[in-house]
Amino acid sequence: MIINMDSFLEAIKYCTMKGKWGDKNGELSSQITCKIEDNNLYLLSANKANSVAIAYKLVLDNAEEVEFVLDLEVLPMLKTFSGEVEFEVGNVLTILQGSDSATVPLVASHENEAAIDRFSPKLIDWINQGFEVDFIF
């Protein structure tokens, strides 16, 4: 699938709530769940302790449905790319751009998966009904 890396990184920044959660260095979670369905990429995160979930939507073309979890420790590797990139999702995430490529390890499940499972269907529904491109629950 083709993704605009600049938009993807902006969505990750939004979903971490870095600097807006807890103290100025705090973040909602150290992981992001990426869920692709119906040509939409939803970035989801949650904090179990405070029952907060957040979602962000990017529209894609011809993307197969898949779900994967990224640990934010890979952000420096992701930031080496900009513009249009190709994502190949398997046991790892492979990012391709011209002759450059990177292999990014994936996490088996989000540390707050139960909260995401509980809130994400409603968040995705609200986003698709037009409650802006992002929404905090």
Question: What does this protein look like?
Answer:
The chain is built from three helices and nine strands. 23% of the residues lie in helices and 39% in strands. The model is unreliable at 133-137 (pLDDT under 50). A hairpin with a 2-residue loop joins strand 2 and strand 3 (40-47). The strands form two sheets. Strands 5-2-3-4-9 form a five-stranded antiparallel beta sheet. A four-stranded antiparallel beta sheet has the order 1-6-7-8. With 137 residues, it is α+β, with helices and mostly antiparallel strands. The protein starts with a strand and ends with a strand.
Q: Regions with pLDDT < 50 over 5+ consecutive residues?
A: 133-137
Biggest beta-sheet profile = 5 strands, antiparallel
Order of helices and strands: EHEEEEHEEEHE
Mean pLDDT score, rounded? 82
Number of distinct beta strands:
9
Task: Walk across the major sheet and give the strand order.
Answer: 5-2-3-4-9
What Rg, in angstroms, do the CA atoms define? Answer: 14 Å
Shape: globular
**Annotation field: number of helices:** 3
Strand residue percentage: 35-45%
> What portion of residues is helical?
10-25%
Q: Whole-Å distance between the termini?
A: 28 Å
Class based on secondary structure composition and strand pairing: alpha+beta
Looking at how many chains there are and whether they match, the oligomeric state comes to: single chain
